[in-house]
Amino acid sequence: MTQKPFKAVIPAAGLGTRFLPATKAMPKEMLPVVDKPAIQYVVEEATAAGIEDVLIIIGRNKNNLSNHFDSVPELESNLLKKGDQDKLAKVQRSSDLADIHFVRQGEPRGLGHAVLRARAHVGDHPFAVLLGDDLIDERDPLLTTMLEEHRRTGAAIVALMEVDPDSIHMYGAAAVEATDTDGVVKVTGLVEKPKKEDAPSNLAIIGRYVLSPDVFEILERTEPGKGGEIQLTDALQEMAADTEGPGVLGVVFGGRRYDTGDRVDYIKAIVQLAADREDLGPELRPWFKDFAAKL
């Protein structure tokens, strides 16, 4: 039987309090990373992996998100009259990326609850969950590998990355066993934001998941966990412990990842991406070196 096409779910209902006052009236997902909002990088990652249907989970005061992916006839007409084809193409790209839908989360009750809000839209399709705090460099594909592993095994797939053990308390940590596939491990247990001494490894879950719709039934009965929220990690832990099911696999990622979850890492992400750009890097890189030498 041919597998149904994947859909993508992007939770974007958080309050973005780390970036106040910038996020008082603007969703954190709309903060620019060089010259595109962070969420556009995430949608582009999904479409590059072949996903054409994208659902964005939003909260209150997040209308800027839907506006960004709408067409803007007046702006497009103005650019066309000026003959500015380059800017016109950039403006139109965001509205032509995918079939994009929106649903409100209401009260933010955790990542598991946000994913559960996607149930009606996802239906019986397999789907990817992409968090906007983690930007994956387009030169280092991750999602494509995860989709292929799900097609091959039917397992839930999480993205894992080695982090400094002193930072593991900021992530979900995975206990793993080796498999016969290079770069893929079997996840035997998950702990949400453990203390360094309690972490099963320094392999952290980063913000990419590929799931079957079976996860919704588990989330329905998942009790609030850490922070009083419904944790996706808790549902994955149940799937990992089910010896009769396909289980949970981890794809270990060693490529370029940009963490935009706090202010310092957000600035680093902009600097790294801008320095690598062909149109910006040649001018910026010498300036960075000169600036760093004066510190």
TrEMBL record:
EC top class, as a word: transferase
Domain Nucleotidyl transferase: 7-273
GO molecular function list: UTP:glucose-1-phosphate uridylyltransferase activity
Gene Ontology process terms (BP): UDP-alpha-D-glucose metabolic process
Enzyme Commission number: 2.7.7.9
Alphabetical list of InterPro entries matching this protein: GalU_uridylyltTrfase_bac/arc, NTP_transferase_dom, Nucleotide-diphossugar_trans
Pfam families reported in the protein's UniProt record: NTP_transferase
Record's catalysed reaction(s): alpha-D-glucose 1-phosphate + UTP + H(+) = UDP-alpha-D-glucose + diphosphate
Keywords: Nucleotidyltransferase, Transferase
PANTHER family in alphabetical order: UTP--GLUCOSE-1-PHOSPHATE URIDYLYLTRANSFERASE
UniProt cross-references to NCBIfam families, sorted A to Z: galU
Protein family: Belongs to the UDPGP type 2 family.
Protein known as: UTP--glucose-1-phosphate uridylyltransferase
